[in-house]
Amino acid sequence: MREIVTYVEMTGRDQLAPAGPVPGLALETLDRDSPLVVGMQVEIGAPYGWKCAGRTDQEWAVWYAEHPDRLFRLLTFHGEPAGLVTYDLHPGDEVEIETFGLTPDFVGRGLGGYALTLALRQAWELTPTVARVWLHTSSLDHPHALRNYHRRGLRTFKTEDGDRG
Length: 165
Known about the structure:
Layout: E1 2-10, E2 25-30, H1 35-45, H2 57-66, E3 71-77, E4 80-90, E5 94-102, H3 112-125, E6 132-138, H4 145-151, E7 155-163
């Protein structure tokens, strides 16, 4: 299946174009040992063919071990788990949003713009000297994903054309 991967970035917190608040939507710290880390990624990614949706326990162990500094945040809507944000801290004061998404039950309810606003604000607060926040999305992800990223102020800096098999 043909896939276009788009990388987007923000190089200053003043570039954030926040979405209006959604009452009841919050971003909470999630312990890396919580079963929600794996469960949410599988639930979010399964509809879009994310590789994580089919990982074995051994592959998850490798994923955790490769990035011991990975940080996790749970998106909640009126206290219910609604999505997940995963951050990787990279050299050069860069923060990658490695995972961002809502579970299928919360997609299409008008939460994505504010959820991304919360995720980006948190990214800029992770270290005192963040110079860049970036992430990537695929043409196989939710059809509004890239538009949401652009509306929040992220700019495309690279695209890759490939094949997801």
